[in-house]
Write a structure and sequence with these properties.
The complex is a heterodimer. By secondary structure, chain A is of the alpha+beta class. Chain A has 9 helices and 18 strands. Chain A folds into 2 domains: 183 residues, Ubiquitin-like modifier-activating enzyme ATG7 N-terminal domain (Cytidine Deaminase, domain 2, 3-Layer(aba) Sandwich); 127 residues, Cytidine Deaminase, domain 2. In chain A, β12 and β13 form a beta hairpin. Chain B contains 7 helices and 8 strands. In chain B, the strands form 2 sheets. In chain B, strands 1-2-5-6-8-7 form a 6-stranded antiparallel β-sheet, with helices on one face. In chain B, strands 3-4 form a two-stranded antiparallel ribbon. The longest helix of chain B is centred in the C-terminal third of the chain and has 25 residues. The radius of gyration of chain B is 24 Å and the shape is globular. Classes of the chains: A alpha+beta, B alpha+beta. Chain B: It holds the Pfam family Autophagy_act_C.
Chain lengths: 327, 362
């Protein structure tokens, strides 16, 4: 059994977020360094066919954040994306940004996720964003953290070839039926096949009631998978598995459907059209329930280092540069 | 100057009357109501698109929660400049016959036919030769693109490797994107675009806006977007203007002054071939009695066939049929629902390398 690897989130921040943050900073936050709520989204991992080489190109594992995420009444995510909530802490100076106790902040966020596991609404993909806005130079320094619980012994995949294609497990007809019953904003859900061949879904926290009559070997956990890598599921699965292990420690093996088909392939398209993956994920027998596993998840920058990223919005915010570009 | 100009443009759009009468077949223009219908259809059929409210004052001629359409993260694997046409490729041209066209002048030239993949790696596409026309154009615009690119020096040196002492390399796949050889997967770093479709009240057509991100997720400068616009349109029909549904964004946009006439031509042809198909189905014995609304499944088939003929297949050569029908039958041709789907196909000629169009299966 091979250890399962997970694709970490990469943040994609719309310039609108920085515009909105600047506005908040000037009008509302002022010198406050309290955390503010932000909602971000991730969609199913996308793969496109390169028109010239004919090869599949994966789009990675993206979490998109935009300015709308600050505004409860403006936030209008597409129906088939999952919503991740998070907290933003904006520091007043670059020194405070540098010297902030990142370990403590991270562990605080991880604790929040862990605490939510005992409620009906587990926060699978909560994130932390620390920022410093250099409003005079239109430069924004930022660092995302996506805390995910990692067991001491890695999750393993039962299938010998790693993740299998969902089509080979379910078949086209069943996948189409599953697509019909997917909840709106499906981050994670329980899935079972009814006697009449239809499918039903339920939130994760309903595990015991929903799967009461269902034999263990056909219970399926579905989640919206932001990863496009055929062999590694996306980051949210780590917390989903940790949650399930916390909820039902006796079930050490889970059938996982990594849903990646936000657009259902049209009938008659090539056989490889379905992108969803399937795996039976097994916990290590040494795992101990009830103890919070350690968490990882600071985002690496473009150079692959554990360091913040920077967005330079001079070209779209600086009045001088805007005037220069005008013809 | 720019401020005055954009104020003027904004004022001009504000005072322009709202189009009331449906004219999409005659002029290629649509009313705000039709924009909402077509947008609803697009978001239903292709849920990667979604309606947005925007953070500016809502436009009154559109519902508050349906101000514009958004597609996030459309991949753009290569620069449009890499598609620049060379003499050597003229041999690859093929004549395609348009859907309703029977005469020679209706044939379209398909370029790049039989073109093979370039040998260069997509990661290295940034090396556009300096003598390229588009690059030269951009340099004239005094961009200082390289000067203002975030350099490592600007970012405070605060790498903190010890933050993740628990990081188990067995858990994380492909954490180091700078080392492609360590990636055994198919993930390539490409530019991505957020595409927005707004309704332009002045020109009474939809309008496309583009917000680009480079391979590392850093926003592209508006002028870098020109590298992804086909050379015929860069700096001509693609302009940089304030985005109407945001208080702060300045984005690249495909100027809509020619949209109506192009859309009219495409719709005319599609309409003709659809009416033809509808007529055929009416003439067949079983269907002639049904004067009720055409079955939804049927209309999908009609447009499917028509679209294929107009946009790509090029094998059909249906006879041109008169557009006007006087017998009051159900031959109503293309429905306005499809307007935006057709619009996306048209846009793919302007931004050929941005994968806006997930509608190819129709």
């Amino acid at each position: 059994m091979a250890a399962l690897q997970f694709s970490p989130f990469t943040s994609q921040v719309s310039p609108q977020l920085w515009h909105q943050l600047s506005k908040l900073k000037i009008d509302v936050l002022k010198l406050s360094q309290d955390s503010i709520d932000l909602k971000a989204t991730y969609g199913a991992g996308r793969t496109i066919v390169d028109r010239e080489s004919g090869k599949d190109i994966g789009m990675g594992c993206m979490l998109s954040a935009s300015g709308d995420g600050f505004l409860k009444d403006r936030f209008a995510p597409a129906a088939n994306v999952a919503i991740a909530s998070g907290a933003v802490i904006n520091y007043n100076t670059i020194e405070e940004f540098k010297d902030s106790n990142k370990k403590a902040l991270f562990s605080q966020t991880a604790d929040q996720i862990w605490a939510s596991f005992d409620t009906d609404e587990p926060q699978i993909s909560r994130f932390l964003l620390i920022t410093f806005a250099d409003l005079k130079k239109y430069k924004f320094f930022y660092w995302f953290a996506f805390p995910a619980f990692v067991p001491a012994d890695a999750w393993t995949v039962k299938e010998s070839g790693g993740l299998a294609s969902a089509e080979s497990v379910f078949g086209t007809e069943k996948l189409e039926k599953i697509a019909d019953v997917l909840p709106a904003h499906p981050s994670a859900f329980l899935l079972k096949e009814c006697e009449n061949g239809t499918f039903e879904t339920a939130p994760l926290s309903k595990y015991a009631a929903f799967f009461k009559e269902v034999p263990e070997d056909v219970r399926t956990i579905g989640f919206l998978d932001p990863s496009s890598d055929p062999q590694s599921p996306g980051w949210p699965l780590l917390n989903i598995l940790a949650y399930l292990f916390h909820l039902t420690p006796t079930h050490k093996s889970h059938r996982v459907l990594a849903w990646r088909d936000s657009v259902v392939p049209a009938a008659g398209s090539p056989a490889s059209a379905w992108k969803s993956r399937f795996a039976t994920v097994v916990a290590s027998p040494n795992s101990v329930p009830g103890v919070r596993p350690s968490a990882v998840g600071w985002e690496r920058n473009a150079q692959g280092k554990l360091a913040p990223r920077m967005a330079d919005l001079g070209s779209s915010m600086d009045p001088l540069q805007l005037a220069e570009q005008a013809c | 100057m720019n401020a005055i100009q954009s104020q003027y443009l904004r004022w001009r759009e504000t005072v322009a009357p709202v189009l009331r009468e449906s004219k999409f077949k005659e002029h290629g223009k649509i009313t705000p109501e039709e924009f909402v219908i077509a947008g609803d259809f697009l978001t239903y059929k292709f849920p990667l698109w979604s309606w947005q409210k925007g953070d500016a004052k809502p436009r009154e001629h559109l519902p508050a929660d349906k101000q514009y359409l958004l597609l996030q993260g459309a991949p753009c694997p290569r620069r449009a400049t890499s598609l620049v046409y060379t003499d050597a490729e003229e041999d690859g041209e093929q004549l395609l016959s348009m859907g309703g066209g029977s005469s020679k002048e209706d044939e379209w030239v398909q370029t790049h036919a039989g073109r093979t993949a370039p040998t260069s790696h997509p990661d290295e596409i940034d090396d556009i030769p300096d003598d390229d026309a588009v690059t030269a154009d951009m340099q004239r615009m005094n961009l200082k693109a390289n000067e203002s690119m975030p350099s490592e020096d600007d970012i405070p040196d605060m790498e903190e490797e010890d933050l993740e002492d628990a990081l188990n390399s067995n858990i994380v796949a492909s954490v180091k994107p700078t080392q492609p050889e360590a990636n055994n997967n198919n993930i390539q770093k490409t530019r991505k675009y957020d595409a927005m479709i707004t309704y332009d009240k002045l020109y009474q057509t939809p309008r496309l806006w583009l917000l680009g991100y480079d391979e590392n997720g850093t926003p592209l400068k508006p002028q870098q977007v020109f590298e992804d616009v086909s050379a015929d349109h860069a700096n001509k029909t693609v302009t940089i203007e304030p985005f109407p549904h945001s208080t702060s964004l300045t984005l690249a946009s495909v100027h809509p002054c020619k949209h109506a006439s192009v859309m009219r031509k495409v719709i005319e042809r599609m309409n003709a071939s659809m009416i033809e198909e509808q007529r055929k189905s009416h003439q067949s014995p079983g269907a002639s009695s049904s004067t009720a609304a055409p079955a939804s499944g049927g209309s999908k088939k009609w447009i499917g066939g028509a679209l294929r003929r107009v946009t790509g297949g090029g094998t059909a050569s249906a006879e041109k049929s008169p557009v006007a029908t006087n017998d009051g039958e159900e031959e109503d041709g293309m429905k306005v629902d499809w307007y935006l789907v057709v619009f996306l196909k048209f846009l793919s000629s302007i931004v050929p390398t941005i994968e806006l169009d997930s509608t190819s299966s129709f």
